[in-house]
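Journal club side-thread
Mid-discussion, someone asked how the predicted structure for our own chain would compare to the paper's figures. Pasting it here so we can look after the session.
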Amino acid sequence: MSDTSAPSRDTDRVASALAVCLPALHRALDRRVASTYPHPKPPEGQLLLLKFVAQQEGATVREAAEALLMKPNNVSALVSQLTERGELERRQDSTDKRVAHLYLTATARRRLGEVRDLETAFLNEALLSLTDGEMDALGSALGALTSLTRHLHAAAH
């Protein structure tokens, strides 16, 4: 029987480096976008909810809460805030009137597109500064990072 797991020392090193690097990467990208974005930046929770609804148009509050690892009452509060700001719409379910489905407004869709374009431009700029070897390593790591994200997300439920 072969053991395909990395030695404990290597996993500790990688885990520690990821715990430092990923939040720093997110903060740096977030600050670059915020410095250029012409609209007030929504709080992180609202932005996460808007991005989720953009990917899962018609999702319910419960589905959003599960996907975002948040409590349904917290997501419901975010939905209320975003609805009041005209960035999210609640549409009543046709069979169960107690259930509402979430949809982005045209304004929110446009602004999320602007944020996505800025994020892509800043990441492209930073990627151009990397060596070919670093780019190859990042490309190879994307699948592993996606798998790691799925694993951590499942374990958080």
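Post-session note: Strands lie at 88-92, 100-104.
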